[in-house]
Amino acid sequence: MALPTLRIIGFILGIFLITLAVSMVIPMFTLLAFERTDDLQAFIWASLITFGSGFALVAPGRPTNTNLRPRDMYFLTTISWVTVCCFAALPLMLVQHISYTDAFFETMSGITTTGATVLSGLDSASPGLLIWRSLLHWLGGIGFIGMAVAILPLLRVGGMRLFQTESSDWSEKVMPRSHMVGRYLLAIYLSFTLAAFIAFWLSGMGGFDALNHAMSTVATGGFSTSDASLGKFGPASHWVAIVFMVLGSLPFTLYIATVRGNHKALLVDQQVRGFILTLIVTSLLFTAWYWLNHNDGLLDSLRIVTFSVVSVITTTGYAVNDYTQWGGFAVMVFFYLTFIGGCSGSTTGGLKIFRFQVAYSLLRANLQHLVHPRAIIRQQYNRHNLDEEIVRSILTFSFFFTMTIGVLALCLALLGLDPITALTGAASAVCNLGPGLGSIIGPVGNYSTVPEAAKWLLAAGMLLGRLEIITVLVLLTPAFWRH
């Protein structure tokens, strides 16, 4: 990689680190507001170290006449997420006095909006620490939306070219338009966060809890201010969370289209309709089963089941109770739901609903070919032609997505984890869900007792899942590093 390219990558990383350092001011003000100055020094030192490192990268200035090629963006995308996590872990390590492994795991879980945690005693934890965890979710959520809209389609990762827009082009002639899209994204994201905060507050939460859960819910992250997650709060807050988990799971580009006058953009989109239909059908059928097999009333059954289904499908990871105690059938259902995810261009993880829809379209076309071998069947998705490149990209991504979970699960089992913990932990990490199944990492457990080596593997799985696998794997090929 040429020196000018490395300089511009370093310059961009410096901007990210300076932004991260400035963000640490928020937990500082929070600590001052709660008069908990004992942890203030930790955030000050972490901010100074992060700012100094960022300034050192920015100080040489931005190289002129340097354009990043798509192959450079693979490297920049991966290294930026890892670098931010390395420095964002500093406050956690200094405040909680935990190992850097635990701090990095918690930070990677926050930035990737996974929601897996190694911390307990959250009900009495430092308010600065709690707001920092939620802020990591919030920053990671808007960061991934921007990446999914502007970068992944151009890199042709996992069939994302289906959603390519003019804002995905880095050429100078569309930069003003790209900046405009960025402003719309940020405005909508902020609006959802504010609306969620007000709704949680009106549902009975205190202002601090409402703010934390607003950031975590819109980012479909799952970090809470209580070890009991949303089980600590009343039923009204559960319905609020359902609404905003769904809103965070829809394509933000369609929100922009709606704001700009295309009021049917969300209604006619095939991906959105498929996602909403999946949520409704699964919730209703699962509610009927739960109501017939448990002592809760119909409305309580609907609330508990819908909340749990939406939380898992949107890869948020909130819990109101331990759904692993509902029986073997429920455990299997939730394991399958782990892989679905929300819509492309949202904050969610998982395979994304559009890949299931494309797979169904391909299956139907192949079955029609068996019946009518000479027929010419035009394959489309959301008014886009499914050409060979898109199909190949989706199949490649799906294969390596599954293989990544399988290999990661084998490695976790090799480190001594039981099969359920290893398999569901790997799936939850790569799908960016958070809680797995079983007594250790289930909805009422956490990852604190997992071996340190396993935590590093799971953190790598979170990164792979968030960056759509191929973006990271391409860096491991010798051809990438050849000129």
Descriptive terms for the model:
65% helix, mainly alpha, two-stranded antiparallel sheet, 1% strand, 483 residues, single chain
Q: How helix-rich are the residues, as a percent range?
A: 55-70%
- What is the CA-based Rg, rounded? 22 Å
- Major β-sheet strand ordering: 1-2
Please state the structural category.
Answer: mainly alpha
Topology:
Layout: H1 3-23, H2 25-33, H3 40-58, H4 70-96, H5 100-111, H6 127-150, H7 152-155, H8 175-202, H9 207-218, H10 235-248, H11 252-259, H12 265-268, H13 270-293, H14 298-313, H15 328-337, H16 353-371, E1 380-381, E2 384-385, H17 388-414, H18 419-430, H19 452-466, H20 470-473, H21 478-481
Antiparallel strand pairs: 1-2
Describe the structure.
By secondary structure, the chain is mostly helical. It contains 21 helices and 2 strands. The protein has helices spanning 3-23, 25-33, 40-58, 70-96, 100-111, 127-150, 152-155, 175-202, 207-218, 235-248, 252-259, 265-268, 270-293, 298-313, 328-337, 353-371, 388-414, 419-430, 452-466, 470-473, 478-481, and strands at 380-381, 384-385. Strands 1-2 form a two-stranded antiparallel sheet. A hairpin with a 2-residue loop joins strand 1 and strand 2. The longest helix has 28 residues, at 175-202. Mean pLDDT is 88; it is low at 165-176.
